[in-house]
Design goal:
Elements lengths: L2 H14 L3 H14 L4 H14 L3 H14 L4 H13 L3 H14 L3 H18 L4 H8 L9 H8 L3
Helix pairs in contact: 1-2, 2-3, 3-4, 3-5, 4-5, 5-6, 5-7, 6-7
Length: 155
């Protein structure tokens, strides 16, 4: 448990106590001081704003994050989640698809696909099979369709 973990807990505590501006200010300040965790901190800003219902501010931060970190898988995963929280399923879907393109490990590819499936479930996508055929290109050469079928099977 390090100093950054302590700050993340503090941001969570501030958010939980509805001190959104203070939590955002802390994350932004830390992002200017910590070049290693800048992406994670700015992702946290977007999520704090989204969960607080501050749609306009959250969207601005999300756009900045995606522009600033166009090759970071986890930035797209978290942007997808933030857009999902904001009920912007179209933007969430776009982020999850991009995360699938950026995935360099099968587990990451599957995780992004599972997030995308959640959107299909919520929006009433007719079947998991149509989700499979229209949304899951074989981004990883060794990731077989049989494995993706498992990921697409309802629990």
């Amino acid at each position: 448990y390090g100093l950054m973990d302590w700050f993340k807990d503090l941001m969570d505590d501030l958010t939980e106590s509805k001190q959104i501006d203070r939590a955002v200010e802390l994350a932004i300040t830390l992002s200017k001081l910590d070049s290693v965790n800048v992406a994670a901190l700015l992702v946290k800003v977007a999520l704090i704003l989204a969960e607080a219902g501050r749609t306009e501010q959250a969207c601005r931060q999300l756009e900045e994050n995606l522009r600033r970190f166009p090759k970071y898988y986890w930035v797209f995963i978290n942007a997808g989640h933030s857009y999902y929280v904001l009920k912007n399923n179209k933007a969430a879907e776009k982020c999850y698809r991009k995360a699938m393109e950026l995935a360099d490990e099968q587990m990451d590819y599957k995780f992004a696909g599972e997030m995308l499936i959640d959107i299909f479930k919520e929006t009433g996508e007719d079947s998991y099979r149509s989700a499979h055929s229209s949304c899951f290109p074989p981004a990883l050469p060794n990731y077989s369709n049989a494995n993706m079928e498992v990921a697409l099977t309802p629990a």
